[in-house]
Design brief:
Blueprint: E1 5-11, H1 19-30, E2 35-41, H2 47-52, E3 58-63, E4 76-77, H3 80-85, E5 90-93, E6 105-108, H4 111-123, E7 132-136, H5 140-153, E8 160-165, H6 176-189, H7 201-211, H8 218-231, E9 238-242, H9 248-253, H10 259-264, H11 269-278, H12 283-290, E10 293-296, H13 304-316, E11 324-327, H14 336-342, E12 346-349, H15 350-370, H16 373-383, H17 388-393, H18 399-416
Parallel strand pairs: 1-2, 1-3, 4-6, 7-8, 7-10, 8-9, 10-11, 11-12
Antiparallel strand pairs: 3-5, 5-6
Length: about 425
């Protein structure tokens, strides 16, 4: 009889989590018949004790709210972004968790790659043309969103990131200083990386003419970067916009609006004017409407009134198209923001990010076992020579093989939704 291995997602609340659907689907596809994935309600104060009670059958944990920062003191970051952000959503056990030291508990951040994968799949070659991005929210997931945008900037023209969030007591928008520091640290750690700043086309053209360089290589970027930095000594790549406040009249009048109703109905001119006039500021709505990428990281319903205002704004200003939205919320599905955005642009629900970050977690949690002699014997005994799991094991990190695995996981997720 094979030993049973365990993994789980932890958080509080946790009942809504679809992570078990994804991970167990992956185990089935990989032929890991002796692997099980569950969900456990664990608070921040309970996390250390929970880990101490695990035995050596446990191989990994997924973490959601409010544990992504709390876990940092219990393990060691093993990828760049978990270290830089001090945020991890994945725990890998290399030995018995109950007796492991922090250096033996590996911490990773798969949220960043999950977000990047969503936009690569949605935009494909158009990702190189991205110039403006908006992040709604300033928490741990927003930090991962900022990290994803920094990575996207390396292959695009991204020149501005705006953060829509609440303000601190000193009046500054939450997250802005932290996100600018993340970018500065990244550029210091990788000196040849691309920062996020305005592209000065006229300077670039003039410089290229003077140096005889065509405008299609790394050299033209480096010249542009020198010119841009020289002219923008105090430029901050990430700028803040205060989360808009709505009047009580609007909040009450549209309290019963659902995502379905918002998508199906056109606002009357009276309602449209009422919504826009009730806003404390149009800055956030305008920024969202002009962005190539929007990432909403706030909990369910927090952005409902922004969705209402966005629809009113698009109707009022005859906006024909929006960019791409990723709303990390997948319960409720769709969110109000997703419904409003989908009428003018491409709107992607949080289940896509969940899928891609889960795929990374499956790779990390099962890698050692999948490449062990024990698994070879178990897989052939249970699945036969031609099963998908054995085909995948012949070269376990091929992108094409993981594309097949992600398709299988997506199918199971869609059925669960």
């Amino acid at each position: 009889m094979c030993e049973i291995f365990h993994c789980a997602v932890l958080g509080d609340p946790i009942s809504h989590s679809l992570s078990p659907v994804l991970h167990n689907a992956a185990y089935k596809a990989l032929g890991l018949t002796n692997w099980q994935y569950s969900k456990e309600k664990v608070s921040e104060t309970e996390l250390a004790d929970f880990i101490l009670k695990l035995d050596d059958s446990w191989k990994g944990l997924s973490l959601t709210m409010p544990l992504k920062k709390a876990v940092m003191k219990l393990g060691t970051p093993c990828d760049y972004w978990s270290s830089a952000l001090r945020v991890a959503n994945t725990v890998i056990f290399t030995t018995n968790p109950a007796i492991a030291s922090p250096c033996q508990i590996e911490l990773c951040n798969t949220d960043v790659n999950g977000i990047i994968a969503v936009f690569i799949r949605a935009l494909r070659e158009r990702i190189s043309q991205v110039k403006k991005a908006v992040i709604i929210g300033s928490g741990n997931t927003a930090s991962s969103a900022m990290a994803a945008l920094i990575e996207i900037a390396q292959a695009s023209k991204l020149e501005k990131v705006q953060v829509v969030a609440r303000t601190d007591n000193n009046g500054s928008v939450k997250g802005v200083e932290r996100f600018n520091n993340i970018l500065r640290t990244y550029c210091a750690d990788f000196p040849n990386s691309r920062s996020i700043e305005p592209c000065l086309e006229s300077n670039k053209i003039q410089s290229n003419e003077n140096h005889g360089i065509k405008s299609n290589g790394i050299h033209d970027f480096q010249i542009n970067k020198i010119q841009s930095n020289a002219n923008n000594a105090n430029y901050e790549s990430v700028q803040g916009i205060e989360f808009p406040i709505f009047s009580e009249d609007v909040t009450a009048k549209f309290a019963d609006y659902s995502a379905k109703k918002l998508c199906a109905e056109k606002l009357s001119e009276y309602d449209e004017s009422l919504i826009l006039q009730s806003l404390s500021s149009l800055d956030a709505i305008r920024a969202i409407s002009e962005a190539d990428i929007v990432i909403s990281t706030v909990p369910a319903h927090v952005a409902d009134l922004i969705a209402l205002a966005l629809k009113a704004y698009c109707q009022n200003r005859c906006v024909k198209s929006l960019g791409v939205l990723l709303d990390v919320v997948y319960d409720p599905r769709p969110s109000m923001l997703l419904s409003a955005f989908s009428q003018y642009g491409l709107a992607i629900g949080g289940e896509e990010m969940l899928l891609y970050q889960a795929l990374e977690q499956v790779k990390l949690m099962t890698f050692a076992y999948r490449n062990s002699k024990e698994n070879f014997a178990n897989c052939f005994a249970n699945c036969g020579e031609n099963c998908f799991a054995n085909a995948l094991k012949k070269d376990s990190d091929k992108a094409t093989d993981y594309d097949k695995l992600s398709s299988y996981m997506r199918k199971e997720l869609e059925e669960a939704l």
